[in-house]
């Protein structure tokens, strides 16, 4: 299904590299725009779904990748193109809702995973949470849309998140296996395809269980980075 052509496609549902290139005066978290060249190369090799440009699947995939980029690297939510910043709310598995400001402060990993015996959002901040998963997946933790189940205004879509577990997760040694998470999300969008709310549903316990299946590097080690 194709819903619009290139000429009338909003910037935030185009390729995220195009979004980055077209923007100016952005308050980037690390002072400069992110570089997705390595990520893009791995995606080209490992993606299982090559959605046709202009299709609903491609539009949704671009929108969510733009949102992820903005949530990770833009410190001013008013500069996020992908969302209606003042209305935006996000939740995972019926947990409490979070605002864009909450995401900037805590990071998506903390808000996605919360508290369990395998991960504690309270023990991590934005920087440390990102470092944990960058160490576990040194070649990238990739994301793509599998299929779109319902179109706007409540866009329901199935996705996969995956990466090769080649680095330690906390004190657990890597297994070298591909860790894949499959989930469902619902994005309520405006007429011009900006996200007002985003709900994610996936098995966090299964994901963390795969990361803690390897042997511990240090006996009786602290389960959290200090």
UniProtKB/TrEMBL annotation:
Coiled coil: none annotated. This is SnoaL-like polyketide cyclase.
């Amino acid at each position: 299904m194709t819903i619009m052509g290139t000429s009338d496609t909003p910037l935030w549902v185009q390729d995220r590299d195009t979004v980055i290139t077209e923007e100016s005066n952005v308050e980037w978290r690390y002072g400069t725009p992110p570089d997705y060249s390595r990520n893009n190369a791995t995606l080209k090799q490992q993606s299982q779904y090559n959605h046709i440009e202009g299709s609903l699947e491609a539009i949704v995939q671009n929108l969510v990748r733009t949102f992820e980029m903005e949530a990770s690297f833009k410190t001013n939510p008013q500069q996020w193109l992908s969302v209606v910043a003042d209305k935006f709310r996000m939740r995972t598995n019926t947990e409490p809702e979070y605002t864009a400001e909450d995401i900037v402060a805590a990071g998506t990993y903390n808000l996605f995973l919360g508290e369990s015996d395998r991960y504690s959002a309270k023990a991590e901040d934005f920087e440390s949470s990102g470092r944990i998963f960058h160490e576990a997946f040194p070649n990238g933790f990739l994301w793509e849309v599998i299929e779109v189940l319902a179109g706007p205004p409540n866009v329901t879509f199935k996705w996969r998140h995956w990466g090769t577990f080649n680095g330690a997760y906390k004190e657990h040694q890597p297994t070298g296996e591909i860790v894949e998470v499959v989930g469902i999300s619902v994005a309520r969008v405006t007429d011009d395809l900006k996200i007002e709310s985003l709900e994610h549903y996936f098995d966090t316990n299964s994901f963390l269980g795969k990361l803690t299946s390897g042997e511990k590097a240090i006996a009786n080690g602290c389960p959290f980075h200090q």
